[in-house]
Amino acid sequence: MNKKNTQFSVELSRIISGLPPSGIREFFDLVLTMDDVVSLGVGEPDFSTPWHIVESAVFSLEKGYTSYTSNKGMLELRKKVANLIYSKSGLRYDPENEILITVGVSEAMDIVLRAICNPGDKVAVIKPSYVSYSPCVIMAGGKAVEIECKKENKFKLDPADLEAACKDNIKAVIFNYPSNPTGVSYTKEELSEIVAIIRKYNILLLSDEIYDTLTYDFDHTSILNFPGMKERTVYFNGFSKGYAMTGWRIGYLAAPPEIAAMANKIHQYTILCTPIMAQFAAMEALRSGDDDVRAMNKEYKRRRNYIVSQLNDMGLTTFLPQGAFYTYTDVSSSGMNSIAFAKKLLSDKKVAVVPGTAFSSCGSDFIRISYASSFENIKEAMLRMKEFMSLL
Ligand SMILES: Cc1ncc(COP(=O)(O)O)c(C=O)c1O
């Protein structure tokens, strides 16, 4: 063997080397080595994709639709997405140049951040947040400015904190509601305060509304409903959560044409297009209305009510989440921090939850529990957790 080759090494990207590994991955690598674990860790629906959606994709393949599509996604699907956004916001988006079909909201967020960031540009991330946002800002060359939501505010964004960040010259803010991991959502009145600040400081809003169909106490109001927001918003949504389609990898963005064009440039060079069968499946999902979504929503609400009352009963303070399918539960009464709690719960009772530090540097008192798991699993997990708490 050529000795020189075995000694070869390359200097790796300093940006990527500097990123911490995902807190969730680290923990779940451990879970995978164990048997009989009840996992309330993952953030994906336990339901399978409704059969008629699956069938439409299979049928499209049988008919020979196996090619690339337009980079932006099939025009027919973009038109359907434009109609859906119109029904939610009353805004008309041009499917030709304001909508892009992407590999989930994940790709959409990545390409938009890369499309807008120049080196060092500041992008605000509202914490606790979905784990990808800050790393994506950094990978795009930007600087993530984290705004912490406080327990005293039941994890709602305090408009004063947003205003302080705006004064610090941020270019954009990533806003997600209903929120992963807290389940927090915002009423129209609450949103209007946030919108007023965004307009006052002329900030771009990146609005990730992927859980918009999963709300339990009041209807979701899209940020697009507020005057003056269309031109300063990139709207993200997809099929993963509401339609139980995580594995299909399909979502979309709606944006002012110049941002959509820049994002599409990256998408063209890196992705080409979203898989055609997933696009057929998405068209069927939109064609069939929201009966499936409503049925799943009803079941999530039943689980939410059960799990929140169980957790509070065992001394683990939990606010009632208004949407998504997570609780953000305070474990400080156990005397342990979130990582110690999650590790001990896993080793003693084989229940997997995610330490809050995965979502925020201030998350050491909290764990995220997903109720996107069957009612039986949730019941079993609650039984085990009750025993766990009583033995502490
Ligand atoms: C807030 C949020 N945005 C985006 C995503 C990723 O969505 P997608 O499957 O469409 O890439 C997730 C997944 O957990 C999420 O929680």
Structure, described:
By secondary structure, the chain is α/β, with parallel strands linked by helices. 42% of the residues lie in helices and 13% in strands. The protein has helices at residues 3-6, 14-17, 23-31, 51-62, 75-89, 104-116, 133-139, 159-167, 188-200, 257-270, 276-287, 291-313, 338-349, 375-390; strands spanning 38-39, 99-102, 122-127, 143-148, 172-176, 204-208, 233-238, 251-254, 326-330, 351-352, 354-355, 366-370. It has a seven-stranded mixed beta sheet with strand order 2-8-7-6-5-3-4, sandwiched between helices. Helix 5 (75-89) packs parallel to helix 11 (276-287), helix 6 (104-116) packs across helix 7 (133-139) and helix 8 (159-167) runs parallel beside helix 9 (188-200). The chain binds pyridoxal-5'-phosphate (PLP). Pyridoxal-5'-phosphate binds next to helix 6.
Q: Characteristics of this structure?
A:
binds pyridoxal-5'-phosphate, Aspartate Aminotransferase, domain 1, Aspartate Aminotransferase, domain 2, 2 domains, alpha/beta, 14 helices, 3-stranded antiparallel sheet, 392 residues
CATH level-two architecture of the largest domain: 3-Layer(aba) Sandwich
CATH superfamily of the largest domain: Type I PLP-dependent aspartate aminotransferase-like (Major domain)
Q: Count the helices. How many?
A: 14
Shape label: globular
Largest sheet data: 7 strands, mixed
> Total number of β-strand segments?
12
The parts where pLDDT drops under 50 for at least 5 residues are: none
Classify the helix fraction into a percent range. 40-55%
Helix-and-strand structural type: alpha/beta
